[in-house]
Design goal:
Keywords: Glycoprotein, Secreted, Signal
Number of helices: 2
Radius of gyration: 16 Å
Shape: elongated
Number of strands: 8
Oligomer: single chain
Largest sheet: 3 strands, antiparallel
Structural class: alpha+beta
Subcellular location: Secreted
Pfam families: Salp15
Number of domains: 1
Order of helices and strands: HHEEEEEEEE
Family: Belongs to the salp15 family.
Strand order of the largest sheet: 1-2-3
Organism: Ixodes ricinus
Distance between the termini: 24 Å
Length: 96
C-alpha cells in the first residue's frame, strides 16, 4: 500500500530513509521520467509530457527490506516473513 496519498512521493521516500527520495528522483530523471509514486516496496517513474501512449516504469526496492510488522519486500510486494521454527529461530528471507 501507499504510505501517504497527500504528500509527494519524494518526501515519502525520504521518510523511509534520508536521501532515498533524492536518489530515486535522480534514477527517474536519468531516464527522462518523473517520480510519481512511492510505496512500501516499489516506486513508479512516468513521462510527464502529453502523449498518446504515455510510459511508466515500476521499480522494486531491494528484496529483504522490512516493510511492516514481520514483513519484508519480495519482488515489489510486502509479504509475510517465513520463520524456521527451530532452535535457534531463523528466517527464510526472499533476499538472495
Amino acid at each position: 500500500g501507499y504510505i501517504s496519498a497527500a504528500r509527494n512521493p519524494k518526501e515519502d521516500a525520504d521518510d523511509c530513509y534520508p536521501g532515498l527520495g533524492d536518489y530515486i528522483t535522480r534514477v527517474c530523471s536519468s531516464s527522462g521520467t518523473t517520480l510519481t509514486r512511492f510505496s512500501e516496496c516499489s516506486y513508479t517513474c512516468e513521462k510527464k509530457e502529453p502523449c498518446l501512449s504515455c510510459s511508466w516504469t515500476k521499480r522494486n526496492l531491494p528484496d529483504g527490506l522490512p516493510c511492516g510488522r514481520c514483513r519484508e519486500c519480495c519482488g515489489g510486494i510486502c509479504t509475510r516473513i517465513q520463520f524456521n521454527l527451530q532452535n535457534p529461530l531463523t528466517l527464510k528471507s526472499c533476499a538472495k
